[in-house]
Amino acid sequence: MTRPTLLFISQFANPGSYDRSKWRRVQGEDDETVPVGALLDAIGVTPHVEYRAVRAHEGELLPEDLGSIDAIILGGSFAFVSDGYEWQHEISRFLGAWRRTGKPLFGICGGHQLMTTVLGGRVERSPHGPEIGSLPVSRTEAGASHPLFDGFDDDSHFYFANSERVIELAPDDVVLGTRPNLPAAAVDHGGNWLSVQFHPEATCDRMATCWAELNPANAAHYRFVPGCERMVLNFARFAGLVSDAGNTDRE
User: Which residues, in sequence order, are CB contacts of 18 under 8 Å at separation 6+?
Assistant: First the structure.
């Protein structure tokens, strides 16, 4: 019996651009591959997948054998898409090849933005300033019936911390969720690609820590959001990694 492989790509921040000591109080410190692994365990995904992680921002190599990967989660980043770091270019090239496989990808925050640019969309610095806090997402008609939002409603809150936003999408993209200043807070890009501007994988403590250096006052905007991690489980189901019966081992 073999298990499908789920790859998490971390693009946390450009090395040396932040104070690592600020992260000592949270699980995994500044290595988000640790809390993501813990989350997958908490929501019951771990027994059914092989979890792999690459710290792309640290120069770790992305896998060349795409046949060995079944689905990918692309994390957020303190770096702007427009920064143009070499590791960002490497991720973009990798995503171009991954797109051709037709396999599932779930992008989060900076991952959402990078995926959009790879597909020909456009990201801009928000003229309204950063989106901060535990905030609700308004589902579109498409989003209300989409498997990514299974178990959620328009009162469901998620963690936001972004200064840039997706402003133009590729022609076939479908918006699943919005906020007043975010016309594309959740998107189905087709081809088994989904992405969101918010952080369903995070905790309020981790999000508050994001602002420890940038603007500590913003940390007060986060409150505990029970159940937002269900969206990661929804993606795992969408990707065929787990089923409602909880058994996805493949012969």
Answer: 30, 78, 213
